[in-house]
Amino acid sequence: MDTVITKGTGFEEQTKALFESQYPVSQQLRKSTVKQRIAKLKKLEKVILDSQNVIKEALFQDFQKPAEETQVSETWVVLAEIRHTCKNLKKWLKPQKVDTPLTLIGSWSSVLLEPKGRTLIIAPWNYPFNLSLGPLVSAVAAGNTALIKPSEFTPATNKVVTDILSKVFDKSEVAVVEGEIAETQYLLSLPFDHIFFTGSPAVGKIVMASAAKNLSGVTLELGGKSPTIINKDANLQDTAEKITFGKFLNAGQTCVAPDYLLVHKDIKDELVTKLISCINNKFNGKSEDSPYCNIINEKNGTRIKGLYEDAINNGAKVITGGKFENDNCTISPTLIEKVTFDMKIMEEEIFGPLLPIVEFEELAETVKIINSKPKPLALYYFGSKSKDQKYIIENCQSGTTAINDCTIQFANTELPFGGIGNSGVGNGHGYWGVRAFSHERPIMKQNTVFPSSSLLQPPYNSLKRMVSDLLVKYF
C-alpha cells in the first residue's frame, strides 16, 4: 500500500483515483462475513505486536514520549480495542429483533447494522497511533473501506502506521493520505459516507460544514475544558495520585485531561501539598528529568506559555513548576492558584501541563461555574457521598463522567466515548464505534395472506372507518 504523496503536482488526481478505487471494494466488503473481518483484525493485531519497538521509537522521535507511556496509552489501547471487537463482533452484527406493534400484526421487525461504505478518519497529533488505528478497528469491523489522514506533526509515527497497514490491507481497502490544511480540505470535499474526526471544536465545525455539502455522516471527537471537582470528603492521597497521572500523562496533551480543579476551600492546602509530593515522586520535579513527553512543537509550547504569562501578569500565583525550556517544548508540571475566570487560561482548553486551582465553599458554586461554559468532554468528581455524586451528575452535562478517578473512562471499551455540544457529536469505542460506522437499517417483513395494512387501504367502508377510529382512540 502506497501513501499518497502530499507535495507537488498530482495530489488531487492521485487522491481522487484512490477514493474511486475504494468504491467497488466497499461494495464487496458489504458482503464480507464476520469471520473475514475478524481475520483482518487478528492480522492487524499480530503486526502491531511485532512492531512494538518501532512504534515506541517513532513516538519518542516525534515528541519524546516515554516507552512505557507509549505502551499504555497508544499500543495497548488499540490492541484492547481489537481484542474486544473480535470477541463481540458476531453478537453486535446479529440482526436485532424488535417488537412489532399490535396494529401491524402479522409483521416481523429487525434492525441490521450494515456498512456505510467509504470512510475518512482524520487523526490528531497528541495520540497519533491510538487515534488513527482505534477508529480504524471500528471501521473495518463494520465492513467499510477507510482513508486515514494523520497529523503532519507526527511524521515518524505516520510512517510506522503506514508500514503496519501495508502488511494487512490493500490500498483499495485502507490507505494513508498525508498532507496539511490544503490536502485535508480536498479530502473533505469528497463524498465520503462517513467522516470520523478527532481534534479541536474549531476544526470540528469546519469538518461538519464540509460534510454537510455531501450529507456525509460525522463523528466528531472534540475537547473542551474538563472540570475536576474535589469535595472535602474525598480521599486526598488517592485523589492527588490520580489527578497527577491524569493531568500530566502525555504532558497534559490529552482531550480528557483535567483542565482545572474546583477544590473545597477546607482541604485545598492539604490537597496541594499532596499534589506537589506526587509530582515530585512521579516526575522528579525537574522538567529536564521528567519521564513525560515534550510538547509537540514550539508553536504549541509558545501558546501554553502565553496562557501562563497572561495568568501571572493578571495576579495568578505559581505553586510549583513554571519552567519553560527547549524552545517551550519542555514544560514542567505546574500548579497555579488565584486564577480568575476572565484569564485566558480559564477561557480556552489548556492542552498542556498547567493546572489551575479554584476554591469553592458550596457544591452549588461548582455547578454554576461548569454550566457557564460549553459542555465539556469530561467531568470528574472526587468525593465519597453518593448524594453529592448524584447531584453533580444530574445538574451538569458532559460527554463523559468519572467518579473518584480521571481519564480512565477512555480505556473502557464497554462504554461509549464521545462529547456533547461543543465537545463532540456521536460516539466511538467498541460496539459504539462499530455502530458509528454502520447504517442502522430497519427491516420489516409482512405476511401475504392477510396483511394488517389492508385494513387501512381504500376503498373505505364501515369496517375500515371503525378501524381508523379505534387507531386514533386507543393506539
Briefly say what this structure is.
The chain is of the alpha/beta class and 475 residues long. The chain has helices at residues 11-29, 34-50, 52-63, 67-93, 130-142, 155-166, 181-189, 201-214, 236-248, 268-283, 298-313, 363-371, 386-395, 430-436, 462-474, and strands at 96-98, 107-115, 118-122, 145-149, 174-176, 194-198, 217-221, 227-230, 260-264, 317-320, 324-325, 330-331, 334-337, 354-360, 378-382, 400-403, 424-425, 438-446. The strands form four sheets. The protein has a seven-stranded mixed beta sheet with strand order 10-13-14-9-8-15-16, sandwiched between helices.
The CATH class label of the largest domain is: Alpha Beta
Kindly report the spatial arrangement of strands forming the biggest sheet: 10-13-14-9-8-15-16
Query: Which regions contain 5 or more consecutive residues with pLDDT less than 50?
Result: none
Task: Characterize the overall form.
Answer: globular
- Number of discrete domains: 2
Mean model confidence by pLDDT: 94
